[in-house]
Design brief:
10 strands; 7 helices; 4-stranded antiparallel beta sheet; about 220 residues; alpha/beta; 6-stranded mixed beta sheet; Rossmann fold
């Protein structure tokens, strides 16, 4: 599904954030991305989401060479990727329900087709009573859960989650992990960037470890 070959990334004239990164992400795979703060995990997530292009090296996404993908093609490819950013990126003028349903609206679906699915997912992540609330009223943990629900609602081919349990308590973190595992069982490849050691210990999965800009993979 995804292939990186000797990828390097730098911002401007600064030093390389990522150096000679090589790995594959197979279909229906599950992996954790770990490493110390500043190691480049968020930058790697952005490369996977195609919101950054590498400084050097090759990236193939869904059998396409990123170097040859034009701007008109990017939206269609990105729709196959669900992403949860650390800053949530919820729209403050939309309710929780509307934020989660937004990817389906963008796809042109009628609300009658998706309302039940959105409501069910919101209940599952513990936001059933908060679906008509605007994001500024939500706590950090509630915003995190809304962002996760929005990323999952389209059942993407690839899910990227940057510290998805960073603002929730341990019981909810375990519940969200079970949701990611179930989504993976249904066919979605999952990449979870996390510092949470307890999360890593709860499931046998591939570990990709970033340190000093280099990636080591442990299957």
């Amino acid at each position: 599904m995804i292939r990186f070959e000797n990828v390097g990334l730098r911002y401007g004239m600064g030093p390389e954030i990522l150096r000679d990164v090589t790995f594959n992400i197979e279909r229906q795979s599950f992996q954790f991305l770990t490493g110390p703060s500043g190691a480049g995990k968020t930058s790697l997530i952005r490369l996977l989401f195609m919101s950054l292009r590498p400084t050097r090296g090759l990236i193939h996404v869904f059998n396409r060479d990123m170097a040859t993908i034009n701007k008109k093609e990017l939206p269609e490819l990105r729709r196959r990727v669900g992403v949860v950013f650390q800053d949530f990126r919820l729209l403050d003028h939309l309710t929780t329900y509307e934020n989660v349903a937004l990817p389906l609206r963008v796809l042109g679906k009628d609300e009658s087709e998706y309302r039940a699915d959105v409501v069910e997912l919101l209940k599952w992540v513990g936001l059933g009573e908060r679906m008509h609330v605007l994001p500024p009223v939500l706590s950090g943990g509630e915003k995190q859960r809304a962002a996760i629900a929005r990323a999952l609602i389209t059942r993407p081919d690839l899910l990227l989650a940057d510290e998805p349990t960073g603002n929730v308590d341990p019981p909810l973190a375990r519940r969200l992990l079970r949701l990611f595992i179930e989504l993976n069982r249904l066919g979605t490849s999952v990449v979870i960037a996390t510092h949470d050691i307890t999360l890593l210990e709860q499931v046998e999965a591939r570990r990709m470890v970033l340190a000093d800009g280099r990636l080591s993979v442990f299957d």
